[in-house]
Amino acid sequence: MTAIQSRRRPAGPASAANRIWDAGPLTKVVLTFALVLSAFPIYYMFVMATRSNDEALDTPPPLLPGGNLGDNVNRLLEAEQAYFATGLINSIIISTTVTVSVVLISTLAGFAFAKLKFRGSKILLGSILLTMMVPLQQMGIVPLYEMMVTLGWTGQIQAVILPFLVNGFGVFMMTQYTSQAVPDELVEAARVDGASTMRIYANVILPAVRPGMAVLALLTFMQNWNEFLWPSIVLNPDNPVVQTSIAALNQAHGTDYVMLFTGTAASVLPLVIVFVAFGRQIVGGLMEGAVKA
Amino acid sequence: MTLKVDTPAPVGRTGPARSPGHRGSGRGGNGLARFDLRATPYFLVSPYFLLFTLFGLFPLGYTFWVSLHDWELAGDKTFLGIDNYVELIADGSFWNAVVNTVGIFVIATIPQLVMALLLANALNKRIRGRLFFRLGILLPLVTSVVAVAVVFTQLYGRDYGMINWFLGLFGVEAIEWQNQSWSAWIAIATMIDWRWTGYNAIILLAAMQTIPKDLYEAASLDGASPRRQFWQITVPMLRPTLIFVVFTSTIGGLTLFAEPVMFEGNPTMAGGATGQYQTVAMFIVKEGFRDFDMGYASAAAWMLFALILVGILINYSITRRIGGKK
Fold it and tell me: Where mainly found (chain A) (predicted)?
């Protein structure tokens, strides 16, 4: 990341050619405007969650928090047909399970594709890239549904877990990451020392690719937390995930704006907290992944 | 997929200094070591391929099989051959869904890419609070599509929505955004752009930082204006990443589902009174899980795949030409 490091260095006397990298007033205005646009809907969501429905319909709409949050939360938890608390718990279980599986399986496969030589590895990796082009969700919907009916799992959360246990993007990302983060010499040296492949994985690879695993875990968790199409088909309304619960809320109590917004705020809050806490790593990981891809 | 960046990739962090195990441990004879070298790689990739075959590949093939039938979940399954496809090609409501999907995709993606490029360029400047700005524009990514749709649908509300209130300040009459296809498309496109522009800007920014600085210095000495440098150096150098961004946007855009469903507010999958914002993904769910014509839905799913392939090809050939003249 030479580019980043050199820009972190305390700025010396800027040479003329260097000055074009300083942000002008226009750049600052554009960035501030983008920041406000990005943050406003989220801020608005949280403001509305603390207001009453009467206030929500004021013109101009309220822009500061009010004191109605507790009442809204109570109504949200008691809202019929939404089963919000159940949805929240289900989403936590599903997203966590899927994340553990995807990260583990992707790290193993990424190690093999990045650092081991074996017959057919290029073709296998190529096939993973190809399948990333296929809209598996939409295309697998009928057979997957039949599969779950046959297994008697419709309406149960394992029906939402199983199809997502692996994903091509994860393998692709960990392959890229491993090939950059671990020098070949290190693997060879361990080999000369007589370490078995699994030992190399545990002692050399795992410690080095941990940052990549963290980013992949975060992206996977987010993606599954936000899953909507498949759960809305295979789960029943009384055992929802958080997203389908909000959809039900929207349909049954669409006029109770503030309660609806309390639900969306609650569904977004865990991700926003994680994002704020690990923001630097997420941005760094995304950018590293992007360049390596 | 050729996503290689032309410029030398940045040097990654080096691995742990710790050397593994003690010398000689875990050595199980020559035969075992050779077996380990040959077989373990397959063992490592097998979990992915096993699960993928079961939940990815098998459904894919099975969908094709289903699409050749008049298929009811628990009832008759009559072989039809390509009849479902023939019917689909003559089905006005399917093409309506295709037009909506492509329309929303185009009005969402083009402004999004331009904005992402400009934002990335702005973020590439030296500015105080760099990380803060980057985090800020990435923030929409962590919200869920459903939450975004709820908020925006409210913002686009006819009587109390903030957008109509704002437009009203300029004398524009209250718009019923759901009613017309153009207005519904715009509303849905803004939801997509709000969520993804920052993400794409960060990806493009990462690629921008790998462009060697001396290229710009040389151009400056030759008297090229910053604007000229942006179009003649930055954009052409970004081409591989642009192709990647366009590629992912195409797949995401053509499988659009949650935003229009939430915008409608009920799960009928109709996409408005006259289907003015029904997307192909909604069409598939409606045929398969509202009208229970699973063979027809499966045929539509394969048509969606074909649509994506065509979309990728077209976008690839357009993107490849961007800044082609150096």
Answer: membrane
